[in-house]
Design a protein that fits this description.
This protein has helices spanning 2-22, 29-49, 51-59, 120-129, 145-150; strands spanning 62-87, 90-117, 131-133, 140-142, 160-177, 180-184. By secondary structure, it is α+β, with helices and mostly antiparallel strands. It has one domain. The chain is globular, with a radius of gyration of 17 Å.
């Protein structure tokens, strides 16, 4: 009985932590400036470590950069973070990414995420909808180390290329997840 109560309490705490972590927060001027600075620094770090990302950045219509996404869970979990949309080297908007996860999982990690919007349609989609649910809308390709080696300016045919980088922490398990990206309205 003690173990059942303990498990229920842990699940409730996980759900509460996930809800707080993934809730969009208004982008106050100081917070937006920090998000923008961190997003540009994360993009520079990605370019320095992955030359193919820089090649994509030069060809992309825009880049959506999340410098710090926190993910944590114990059976039920969540992830969230804020980022910036970069067009022609300038920040044009701020976005929030969030997800609730469910499955056999335990741990916590932090990582950065960059989405290279390669087509006008992908950029129009995010502008028109104020964001999107990943898996609905533009075709997204996650670029790992092996895929990055084979990318060239002539082989990039998809709408969005995504890099996950600067991972810290440990998250183990399998879970069901759907990320939602939402435009943050300035105060």
């Amino acid at each position: 009985m003690k173990n059942v109560i303990r498990t229920i309490v842990l699940l409730l705490l996980s759900v509460q932590a996930a809800a707080v972590m993934i809730a969009p927060h208004p982008a106050e001027a100081a917070v937006a400036a920090e998000i923008n600075r961190d997003a540009l620094a994360a993009l520079d770090k990605l370019y320095a470590s992955t030359p193919k990302a820089k090649m994509l950045g030069e060809k992309a219509k825009a880049i959506l950069v999340f410098p710090s996404i926190l993910k944590a869970g114990l059976i039920i979990g969540g992830q969230g973070g804020n980022g910036a949309l970069v067009e022609k080297g300038k920040i044009v908007a701020n976005y929030n990414i969030s997800a609730v996860t469910y499955g056999f999982q335990a741990g916590a990690q932090e990582f950065s995420y960059a989405m290279f919007l390669m087509t006008s349609d992908a950029l129009k989609f995010i502008d028109k909808n104020g964001g999107w649910e990943v898996g609905v809308g533009p075709n997204i390709v996650v670029v790992d180390e092996g895929a990055a080696k084979s990318l060239t300016t002539t082989t990039t045919k998809d709408d969005v290329y995504t890099f996950i980088f600067s991972q810290k922490g440990l998250m183990a398990g399998v879970g069901v997840e759907g990320s939602k990206i939402t435009k943050i309205k300035p105060d």
